[in-house]
Amino acid sequence: QVQLVESGGGLVQPGGSLRLSCAASGFTFSRYAMNWYRQAPGKERELVASIISTSRTTNYADSVKGRFTISRDNAKTSVYLQMNSLKPEDTAVYLCNAEPVLAVWGPSYWGQGTQVTVSS
Fold this sequence. Notes:
Blueprint: E1 3-7, E2 10-12, E3 18-25, E4 32-39, E5 46-51, E6 58-60, E7 68-73, E8 78-83, E9 92-100, E10 109-110, E11 114-118
Parallel strand pairs: 2-11
Antiparallel strand pairs: 1-3, 3-8, 4-5, 4-9, 5-6, 7-8, 9-10, 9-11
C-alpha cells in the first residue's frame, strides 16, 4: 500500500529548530517530486518547499526562504524539512506530498500530517 508517514512535529519556542521527516513506501519514490505543504487554521493550504528527484532542484515559499531546507534520500525513500528560526506564524499542520514529474505517470499521494506549534 502507498504510505507517506510524517514525523518530527511538536512544540518549539520562537527562534528554535525542528526537523520533519516523511517516510514513503508503496510507489517508485525516485520518480516523484516531493513537497511539503502546511495548513494553518483560517488559512489556505500553502506549498512551503519542493524538491525534484533527479536534479535535486528546490523551491521555497517566500515566507520560509533562508530558514527552511528541504532534502531527500532516495535510498531511504524519505524526505526531510529542516526548519530553523521558527516563528509563531509557522504554526500549522505540515503535510508530505508526492507527485510525479509528469502527471501521466500516475497520481499524487498525501500523508496524514504532523502538527508544528511555535509558541513561547
